[in-house]
Amino acid sequence: MKKRRQKTLVLSAIFTFFFLSIPIFGEGPEGYPAYSGPPVELTMWAWTSNENYSIDLFQKAYPSIKVKWTNVGGGGDEYTKILTATSAGSGLPDVIMSEYTYAPEFMQFGSFQEINKWIPKATYLKYFPAVTLKWTAQDGKIFGTPQDSGACTMVYRKDVFDKYGLSVPKTWAEFATMAAKLHKADPKIQPISFPSNWVLGPVGLVWEAGGKLFDYADGKWYIDFTNPIASKVFNYWGKMIKDGVVTPDLWWNADWYKELSDGGAATVVSGGWFPEWLQLNSPDAAGKWRVATLPQWDASKPMNGEMGGSGFYVSSQSKNPEAAALFVLWLNSHKDSILQLHDKSQLPVLWANSFITGLGPSLAGQESPYFGGQKITPVSLEAMNQVSKNPNNAFTALPIMDFISSSQQTELKKFLDGEEDMNAFLKNWQDAVVAFMGKQGFSNVVVGQLPK
Amino acid sequence: MRKRHSVRAYLFLSPFLVFFIMVIVYPVISGVILSFFGQRGAKMWFVGIKNYASVLADQKFWGSFGMPVFLLLVQIPLMIILGIFIAFLFERVKGSSVYRLIFYLPYALPGVIAGILWSYMFSKSMSPFVPLFEALGFGKVELITNGSLPFILLVIILWEWTGYTALLLYSTLVSLPPEYAEAAQIDGATRFQIAIHIKIPLLKDTIILLLIFNSIGAIQVFNEPKMLGGLITLPPNFTPAMYIYNEAFSYGAFTYAIAMGLVLAAVIFIISFFFMKSSVKELAVNA
Q1: HEC-encoded secondary structure of A264-318
Q2: A83 touches B: beta carbon within 8 Å
Q3: Residue A108 touches partner B, C-beta closer than 8 Å
Q4: C-alpha–C-alpha distance, residues B275 and B208, integer Å
Q5: Does the global pTM surpass 0.90?
Q6: What ipTM does this complex have?
Q7: What SS3 state is found at B157?
C-alpha cells in the first residue's frame, strides 16, 4: 500500500515536471509571445542611456530572462567591436544596437541572426509600422526591431532669425534665399551647419527629396549616385558651398559643439533624435533653438527621410535567440518600455505603434523649456508622418557604410579644394564605392540604376 | 654542470619568455597563418598569397608612406640636431635637473593625450593662436589645412620626443671619459671645436640607436594623426598604420590588414637592418 502511494507520488512528480517543462506556446504577458525556454541571462550592447529602466520592467514581465546591459561606446566604437567579434567567432553579446543604415552591413557580415521563428512577420507588424521592415529585415529574414526615429527635423536659432528678420523657410528655394540674406548680413554666422564628415546627412537630404543613392532588391545591390534627384540635391548644396554661403563643418568635435552653443550656426538638419541630443550637449543655448519640419522641394507634397535612428538586433553568436528575440520585441514596442525610453533614455520619438498612436499624441500639449516652451512632439510626429508619405520611404543601405562615409569625405575635400565639380564628385564617389564593393567580394552589383 | 647552468638561466628567463611567446611569437605566427586566408565576417577561406599580391599592388598602401618618409627626412634629423644642442646646454647649465625634468615631461604624456591636447591648440574655436593672429591683423586664420598638416605633425612630434632624445644624448655625454676633452682643451681647442670634433663623434652609437627607434616610430605613426582626424578630413591611408587600422576595424578586412601589417614589419626590419649594418661598420672602423 505504502509502496503504491510512493509510486503514485513519483509518477505525479514526473508528470508535473514534464507538464511544466513543455513549452507553452501562445500568449505571454499582455498578448506578447510567451517564453518557453530555461532561465537565461542575456547580454546586450547599446549606447542609449538608462536602458535599465525598461530592462527592469521586462524582467518583471519575463521573470526567467535576465538582461545584462553594457555601453561599449557609441556608433563607430561599437561597430568596430562588432566587426572584430564577428570575425573572431566569439565575443558578441546576445543583443546589439545598430543604426538602421549600418544594420545591412552586419546582416551581410554575419553578425546578426534571423528571429522569424519567434517574431513572425504578423507579430512584428502588430507592433511596428510596415516601413520599418526595410531597416531591420532583409530577404524576408527579420533580424531585429526598430527603436528610435531618425525622421529628419530642422532646428533653428530663433534669436538669430529674429535679429535678422528671417522667416522659417518652408521650401528649399526659401531656404536658399534665407541663407543668402543671413550670409550678407553676418558672414560669421553659418546659415546651416552642413556636415562634411557625417554621410547620413546628405543621404537623408536625398531621401527627403524622394530619392536614394543605393538599394537592395532580389539579391542585388543597386548603386546610382548620379540619378536626377541625387544630382539635384547635391548640386543645390554644391552651389551654396561654391558661393561661400555655406562652409561644411566637421561634426562631433569641440569646435562644432561650441558653434551650436554660441550662435555660430543658424540651423541644423538632422534626425528626430537630434533635438534631445542638442539639449544634452548644448545646455548653454537653452531657450534659443526651435524645432521645425524640413523645407520641402514641393510644398504641396511634403515628404521626409531619415538620418540615423537605431534598432536592436539578435546576434549570430547568441545561444539564447528565443529569449533575445522576445526581449527586442518587448523592449521596443511595449507601452511601458516606450514610456521609459522616452522619459529616461532621451529618445524623443520612437517607431513603435504604441508611440505613434499612444504616447506620442498624448505628449502633444507638453511644452519644452529648452525650446522656449515650444510643443515639439507634434513637430517630430509630423516629420515621421512625412516619412510615411515619401514614395521612396525605405531603402536598404549598402553593406559598406564606413567606406561610403570615408570616400565621401575624400571626394568632398576635392570638391572643396576646387579640384572637381559636383557632378564629378558624385561620379568619382560612386566609382570608389563600386570598386570597394568588388573588393569586398560583392559581385551582385548593378551600377547606374535603382530597383523599379 | 653546464646543463644545470642553462636550466637555471631559463628558469630566470621564463617569466619574460612566457610573455614573449604569448604576446609576440604566438600572434606573429597566427598572423602569418591568417594572412593566407580571405575573410568576410566569421567566414574564412584559403587564398594562398593573394593578400600579399594585393598589398604589393595596392597603391593606397604604398601611397601611405608619404608621411613617414617626410618624418624620416625632416623630423628625425631636426629632432636629433635639436636634441644634441639641448644636451650640450644641459651639460653647461648649472642645476639643469629642473630643465631636464621639464623637457622630459611631454614624453611622459601618452601620445593620445598629447594628440587631444594639440588638437585643442589648433582648433578653430579654442586655439590660443587664433586670437593672437587676429590681433596681429591676419584675420581669422584656419590653422589646420591640408598644407599645414605635415608642419603641425612635426610640431607635435618634436614637442613630444625632443626632450627624451636630449636626455638620452645627455646621459651619454656625461658618461664620456673626460680625458679627450681635457686633452683638446690643453691643445687650445675651443668649446665649439671640442663639441663638434670630439664629443659628437663619440655620441655616434646613441645617435644610431635613436635613428633606428625613431625610424620605427615614424613608419608606425598613428596616435597623433588619429587624434587630429576630428579637426580635418584625413584620407583613410594618411599613414600606413592608419590604413591598416581602417581596413581592419572600419571595413572588417582583418586578414588583408594582417598581410599589410606583416609587409610593414618587413619594411621596418629592412630599414633597421640598414642602420644596424652601417652602425656595425662604424664600430669596426672605430675599433
Answers
A1: CECEEEECCCHHHHHHHHCHHHCCCEEEECCCECCCCCCCCCECCCEEEEEECCC
A2: yes
A3: yes
A4: 7
A5: no
A6: 0.81
A7: helix
